[in-house]
Amino acid sequence: MATNTRERAKKNAENRDKRPQAIAKYLRISSSKVIIVLDLIRGKRYEDAVNILSNTNKSASPLILKVLNSAAANAENNLNMSKDTLFVAECYATQGPTYKRMMPRAKGRGDRILKRTSHIRVILDEKQDVAKTIAKAKPSKTAASAEKKPEAPKKPEKKSEGATVKKTTTTPKPKSTPGKGAENPITETPNAKKPLGTKKEVVKKEGN
Asked: What is the pTM of this model?
């Protein structure tokens, strides 16, 4: 019996799905409500699925978003995958155990309340075409370091003193307007006007 169980365990390990995935169990929400949201992200790219869930006004959206981010983290940390190449390959919700409660009614009766739970599983996969293009676009570290070498800063060329020519802007001087006697300066004082008469002469005239 022990040999059969070991062989089965090996076969199960070989046939196990090795794609990155995450599961959330015993969530207090009906599986029918979860399936409505899962249909929106099935087959979408990881980034598109995150945008859809963050903008969908449903009670299941934040729960599915947590499972999606957990699956992407498993892919990035455990399998060395890039989030840019991931897409939602499979996503489904199954019904979990149901909690039974009772609501008292009139005349001693009671109605049954069924509080359902669900299990959410999200499986991601990598698009090979996108992964190849990203791998080609990213050069290796050795090649990048060999191609891109820091260039030495260029020193400014020193010009000889004789070669430097200082440009002086000459502003035209305003023409001076010479006076009348500027061209022929007069050495002698100009003739002053003689007064009509002195004070003595004026007095004599009044006496006569």
From this structure: 0.59
